[in-house]
Amino acid sequence: MTDRRTVIADAAITTLAHEGMRGFTHRAVDRTASLAEGSTSYYFRTREALMFAALARMAELDTLDIGDLPEAFGTVDLETLTTMLTSVVLGWLTDGRDRTLARYELSLESARRPELRARMRTHGTTFRHLAEKTFAAAGASEPQRRARTFVSYLDGLMLHHLTRAGASELTEDDLRSACRDLLVMALA
Fold first, then answer.
1. Could you tell me the CA-to-CA distances from 166 to 52, 111, 158, 169, 185 in Å, in that order?
2. Whole-angstrom Cα distance, residue 113 to residue 46?
3. pLDDT one-digit tens code per residue, 57-80
4. Who's near 53: CB < 8 A, 6+ residues apart?
């Protein structure tokens, strides 16, 4: 059975994705989680504490999505990396869509909240470090810079897809090609 804090954090993610920051209240999270009014505020007294709980839960779920990537990154060929990246990104755009939307809501909010920005950087470090380690093992020059750039470009690709800002939605083949292009650029 899932503990109450996890249920609330999951409901907070869903609420952020569906209602945005404007609709992100303790009562809205109670409704999303089908809990009695006041339950969320009992566990997370402030809106900030609730945001931090949602962010920590997103990082936990993202880590599970990434799973156990091969340790010997340098021996993994481009097509294998492309397949792995495409799988993760596709998951974040489909089954994990609410989580990805919630992350972008919190990203925008972090521009106005230094404490949230600091937490987001901490959680994001794990993923930037993973990219850096991958690029270093593959022999890319300046792996730290390349990892930062790669993660930024990947974020832009996902945001573009989620908001449907382009003329059409990316197909799975389009997404795979885009992931491959990003990896080629990062590993060049």
1. 31, 25, 12, 7, 22
2. 14
3. 999 999 888 875 555 455 667 888
4. 5, 8, 9, 12, 44
What domains, with CATH codes, occur in the chain? 55-187 (1.10.357.10)
**What is the distance between the terminal CA atoms of the chain, rounded to a whole angstrom?**
47
DSSP 120-153: HHHHHHHHHHHHHHHHHHTT-SSHHHHHHHHHHH
Q: Output the six-digit token pair for 47.
A: 């809106």
| Cβ–Cβ < 8 Å for 78, 180 | yes
Q: Residues with Cβ < 8 Å from 163, sequence gap 6 or more?
A: none
Q: Which residues, 6 or more positions from 171, have their beta carbon under 8 angstroms from its beta carbon? A: none
The pLDDT, as a whole number, for residue 60 is 92
At 2 the three-state DSSP class reads coil
Cβ-based neighbours of 96, under 8 Å, separated by 6 or more = 61, 62, 65
pLDDT of residue 21: 95
Helices (H) and strands (E) in the chain, counts: 9, 0
- pLDDT band at residue 171, thresholds of 50, 70 and 90? confident
| DSSP character at residue 112 | T
